[in-house]
Write a structure and sequence with these properties.
389 residues, mainly alpha, 2 domains, two-stranded antiparallel ribbon, 18 helices, 1% strand, globular
């Protein structure tokens, strides 16, 4: 591996992602294999932006989805090839994420071998490969998170203020892609403050730097709050937080209590929410209030269901998506589900290629997720067997 270069890893990452998308389409023969339930709710406002210049669905201002991922979808919609164009863009962003892993590793470990190890293993990371072929925001989100981390590390390493500004912009872009990172600026600002103190910088500099970072993020996020309130009266950044609390957390609790399937309980909850009419503010206020009430009244059930969800995600990362991409039924359990239920997998639709890899996918994910850190540490100690230079 003496002559291994970053460009070789990038080319490999590009080829394996293209190949995965091609095999998935070849086996299914249908572009719907690249869609999930969230896909259409992102495509609709993207189409509205293209046609009318407004971020809306059926003329109603959209407050559930945030605008950045729909903007990524616009080139594909404009060309009439939303699946191949968007997947190509996402594969490019995924490959750029590989580059950012390399650059971040260089800053942290000051070792080219460590950087190549991290980039090479991330290029094989199963979730990044799978999601680059789905019309979902995960790939774009991962890119902006890594871009934020890169500029933050650059700032901490070189003390160039423009890097702090760029890191704030990148982190805010991730929030506009997926609101799950909405509160991350607070923790990052606190982390910057602690870093300055531990490095024995002045207290004033620590406070000022963390404050400037947080203030910039707030200033970039605030306009979307204003937009939502002006157009609909909704004060939040995105209604997806209320929806997740109601449709998933509260619904899972009531499904257990009522001893009915989770999907059926979700339909019941959806009918109750619709009963509040077309007023989105009242609807989401009810959903938030009702979900909070259910969770507080059933704390033990909530904790149990929440922990089960964590275990499922940890032990089966991406298995359900891999299963669906393979042409299997989406409600079939993965390896963990089989172990827990004692059921046999019945997948007549699964091709031999997918059958041989499905049950190995979770193990592969963790091998490739953990290995970069081990490799980086080994490289720091000049371990020649990783990359023999």
């Amino acid at each position: 591996m003496k002559n291994l270069r970053l460009r070789h890893i990038i080319i490999f990452a590009f080829i394996i992602r293209i190949a995965f998308a091609f095999i998935a389409y070849h086996d299914s023969g249908d572009t719907t294999i690249f869609y999930r339930s969230d896909s259409k709710t992102n495509i609709a406002p993207a189409t509205a932006i293209l046609n009318t210049g407004s971020f809306a669905i059926d003329g109603v201002p959209e407050i559930h989805r945030t605008p950045l991922y729909p903007l990524v979808l616009i080139p594909g919609i404009a060309l009439g090839k939303v699946e191949p164009v968007t997947i190509f863009i996402q594969i490019i962003l995924s490959c750029l994420t590989v580059v950012l892993v390399y650059k971040c590793s260089i800053i942290i470990f000051n070792s080219r071998r460590a950087a190549l190890a991290g980039a090479g293993l991330y290029s094989l990371e199963p979730l990044s490969i799978i999601y680059s072929s789905l019309l979902l925001s995960e790939t774009v989100f991962a890119f902006f998170i890594m871009l934020f981390l890169y500029y933050l590390l650059q700032y901490l390493d070189r003390r160039q203020f423009q890097n702090l500004i760029l890191s704030a912009f990148a982190l805010t872009a991730s929030i506009y892609t997926r609101p799950i990172s909405y509160f991350l600026p607070i923790f990052v600002a606190f982390g910057i403050f602690l870093y300055f103190l531990f490095r024995r910088r002045s207290f004033t500099a620590a406070v000022a730097t963390s404050f400037y970072f947080l203030l910039l993020c707030v200033l970039l996020i605030f306009p979307w709050h204003v937009r939502n309130f002006e157009l609909t009266g909704y004060k939040g950044f995105s209604s997806i937080s209320d929806s997740n609390l109601y449709d998933y957390q509260a619904a899972s609790i009531m499904a257990v209590k009522n001893n009915i399937p989770f999907a059926k309980q979700q339909r019941i909850f959806a009918d109750k929410a619709k009963a509040h009419g077309p007023d989105v503010v009242k609807k989401y206020a009810y959903m938030h209030r009702e979900a909070k009430k259910i969770i507080l009244e059933n704390k033990k059930v909530f904790v149990k269901q929440y922990l089960r969800g964590i275990v499922a995600v940890l032990l089966e990362p991406g298995t359900s998506e891999f299963n669906r991409m393979s042409g299997g039924k989406s409600n079939l359990p993965g390896p963990l589900g089989i172990i827990m239920s004692g059921e046999k997998r019945q997948e007549k639709n699964c091709r031999s290629f997918w059958q041989s890899t499905l049950n190995l996918q979770p193990l592969l994910h963790y091998n490739l997720s953990i290995s970069p850190y081990a490799a980086e540490c080994l490289c720091c100690y000049q371990s020649r067997f990783v990359f023999n230079e």
